[in-house]
Amino acid sequence: MQDIENIELNYLSLDDYQELKEAMIEAYSSMPDSFWRKQEIKNLLNKFPEGQVVIKVNQQIAGCAFSIIVDEEKTDAQHTYDEITGNSKFNTHNPDGDVLYGVEVFIKPEFRGMRLGRRLYDYRKELCEKLNLKSVAFGGRIPNYHNYADELTPKEYIEKVRLKEIDDPVLNFQMSNDFHPKRVLKNYLEGDNLSNEYAVLLEWDNIYYTKPSKAPTITKKVVRLGLIQWQMRPYDNMEELMRQAEFFIDSLSGYRSDFALFPEYFNAPLMADFNHLSEPDAIRELANFTDVITEKLSELAISYNINIITGSMPYVENENLLNVGFVCHRDGRVERYEKLHVTPDEEKVWGLVGGNTLQTFDTDCGKIGVLICYDSEFPELSRLLADDGMDILFVPFLTDTQNGFSRVKHCAQARAIENECYVAIAGSVGNLPKVHNMDIQYAQSMVFTPCDFAFPNNGVKAEATPNTEMILIADVDMDLLRELNQHGSVRNLQDRRLDIFQLKGNLTNQEK
To answer: What is the pLDDT of residue 168?
Structure first.
C-alpha cells in the first residue's frame, strides 16, 4: 500500500492485450486456459469501447470490467455464457438494448482487499445511468458451492449466503454492492467445476431509467459529504489515534461517503508527551508526526475509496512552523493546503506563521477549496476560490468557546450564500486537560447551502449535536448550484458590480 502512487480507471486499449492476458491467467489460476484471445478483445472494442475498462495501479493493470448491451428478454430467459456472448464473438451486442450485461470482471490476487472491485462496479452503474439503461446484469459464479453441493440446492445455498449462515466472499461482495439475485442459471459456464457450472443472475436496477440521458461526465452530480466531529481524548501513541481515525473513515465509507473531513489540529492529543517542554517546542515535536499521519491517511483514502480532508496539523518548512492540511484523493494523489491567517494565539503561544498558497483542488466530485478555521472569516479568500470554479468549501476548525465557534459558523454560512457553493465545517469537542494551550473545545459540525427555493429555507443542510462525538453525513446536488447560478432568485456571483470594484489575488498556477 505504501508504494501506491496512482490508481486510475482507463478505457481498455488493444495495446494492453499482453498485460491483460498475463493478469487474467494469474487471476484464474484454478481455471487453466481461461484468458481472452486477442481477436475477442478486438471484437469487444470495435462493438462497445465505452463498456471495456481496466483499473491500473502505478500504471500496472490490476483488474478489468468488460460489458455489452443486450435486450432484457435475453436476460429474463435461461441462458448460458456462450449464448449471451455469442460464443465470445459478441454479435449479441445491441446498441439499442436496455440492459448492460457484464461479461468479465476480475482483480489480480495481489490487489484484492483494496476495494478496487467496487470502483469497477460503480463505473458500470454510472455507465448504465448515463446510457439510460434499465439495469446492470451478469452471471455471478459461486465458486464455494462445490463444498455444499451434496446437501444444498443452488437456491438453498444462495439463501443461506444471504442470511449469513454461509460465507461466500464472491456472492457477499456482489450483494453488498447492491446487486440482487434474480435466478439460478444452470450450465452457465462450461468447465466451472467449483460452481458445478451454476451461476446466479445478479441485477442492479437503475432507478433513474425513466429520466432522459444527460451528457457524459466524469464527475458525480450528487456528492455525499462525511464530517467527523472528533472527540479530544488522551491517546497512548500515534497508532491508537490512527485506529480511531480509521474507525470514522470506515464508518463513512460504509455509507458510501465521497469525502471525510477531519477538524483542525485533530492530532493535538499527542502533545501530551511533550508537556515538559515549552509550548513552541511541544508543537514542533507534534509536527514530527505530520508526514507519517498523512501517509497513513492517504493509504486509508485508497483502501476505503474516499477522499480525505485531513483537517490540519503543524508542519515545519524552512524552519517556519505552518498550519497545513492535505487532500488525500482516493486515486492516490496528495495535495497540500495552508492556513494563511494564523490567530493571535497561534502566533503568540506557538510561533506559527501564515502560509502563502491558495488554490482549488480538482476531485472526482468536482472542484473544492479548503480554508482552515480563521481563514473562513476573510471573505476575499473564498471569493477567489469561487471565481476559480469551487463547488464545495471545506472548513476544518478548532474553537474553545461558543463565541469563537459562532464566528466560524456565521462566516461559513455567509460564504455559502455569497459564493453560491456548499460549505462543510467540522470541529473537535471535549477537552485535553493534560495538553498545554489545548484545554477545552466547543463545536457543532454543519453543512451550509445557499438560500433559495431548491435549498433549505435556513441554508442549513445538516447539523451535528453540539459538543458530542459523532459523524454527520449529507448529500449535496451539484446541479442545483448550476441552476442557482443561472436562474436563482438572486445571483450573487453574476450580479457583482465589476465596473466599480474588482478582487485580485494569486492562486497557485492561476492568475487572478
So the answer is: 87
Using one digit for the tens of pLDDT, what is the confidence trace for 283-324? 999 999 999 999 999 999 999 999 999 999 999 999 999 999
Say how far apart CA 324 and CA 314 lie, in whole Å: 6
423 close to 413: Cβ distance less than 8 angstroms: yes
Q: Which of 128, 373, 411, 421 is catalytic?
A: 373
pTM: 0.74
β-pairing verdict for 428-431 and 222-232: parallel
| 366-370: strand order across its sheet | 361-363, 366-370, 392-396, 422-426, 446-448, 460-463
SS3 324: strand
**What pLDDT does 511 receive?**
41
pLDDT tens for 73-116 read 999 999 999 999 999 899 999 999 999 999 999 999 888 888 89
Asked whether the beta carbons of 340 and 355 are under 8 A apart, the reply is yes
Exposed/middle/buried for residue 4 (C-beta within 10 Å: 0-12, 13-18, 19+): middle
Grid coordinates representing 381 are 479568500
pLDDT tens for 322-379 read 999 999 999 999 999 999 999 999 999 999 999 999 999 999 999 999 999 999 999 9
Residue 57 phi/psi, 5° resolution?
Answer: -115, 120
The secondary structure of residue 473, as a DSSP letter, is E
Q: How many whole angstroms separate alpha carbon 487 and alpha carbon 127?
A: 29
Show the cell assigned to 12: 481498455
Higher per-residue pLDDT: 119 or 5? 119
Q: Tell me whether residue 296 is one of the annotated catalytic residues.
A: no
Grid coordinates standing for 437? 494551550
Distant-in-sequence contacts of 246-255, Cβ < 8 A, 24+ apart: 246/300, 248/471, 249/300, 249/304, 249/306, 249/308, 250/304, 251/471, 252/226, 252/228, 252/304, 252/306, 252/471, 252/473, 253/304, 253/305, 253/306, 255/224, 255/226, 255/473
- Three-state SS string over 191-239 comes to CCHHHCCCEEEEEEECCCCCCCCCCCCCCCCEEEEEEEEEEECCCCCHH
Given 129, 197, 203, 264, which residue is catalytic?
264
Q: Is 339 part of the annotated catalytic residue set? A: yes
Nearest to 394 by CA among 419, 418, 422: 422
The answer to whether residues 474 and 462 touch, using CB atoms and an 8 Å cutoff, is yes
Q: Which residue is catalytic, options 339, 409, 411, 469? A: 339
